[in-house]
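Trying the structure run again after the queue cleared.
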Amino acid sequence: MTYIVGLTGGIGSGKSAVGRLFEERGIVVVDTDAIAHELTTPGGTAIPAIRAEFGDSVITAEGALDRAAMRGIVFADPAARKRLEAILHPMIRAESDRRVAAADSPYVILMVPLLVESGIYRERCKRIAVVDCAVDTQIARVMARNGLSRTEVERIIAAQASREQRRTAADDLIDNDGDIAALAPQIDQLHREYLKSSPSLG
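Done. Tokens:
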């Protein structure tokens, strides 16, 4: 049985940086966000179903999901978000299961941006690690990275679980409010703990 650690955090918290640190330590990271992007690129498996459900207005000329158009629809209409999730989530689950099963590291990091919101990943993960930072830090990072306005970022954050909800769900908290150099010692410690807990090394 693969020892799975669920990794999550709000937008702009630094999940990708943490994931890279685990990869540098020889651990397979299965990124559900990356899988979702693969499913919605030109020729992606999810594109026909999304086109059938939402029409050509959310598909680019190249045949990929128009993320800006889709974001506008799902933020304005919660029911539309549910329809999109009904298409994507089963595909993401199947592909992430396949990649976890194929992993050859002592444990696997399953990176799920909306892990706490989904309510179902606790059954898959032995531990939940949350990348934590202040909301103002999230906002500043996403504005700088994505070129979004503060209002747009605040709207995205409001649609996610709160910082308190994620902290409550966490077995392990990773503080990423400061310099990125402070992450490595935290990941080293967690890596040692997860290796000790992994049945493949027990």
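The first strand starts at residue 4 and ends at 8. Worth checking whether this holds up in the mutant runs.
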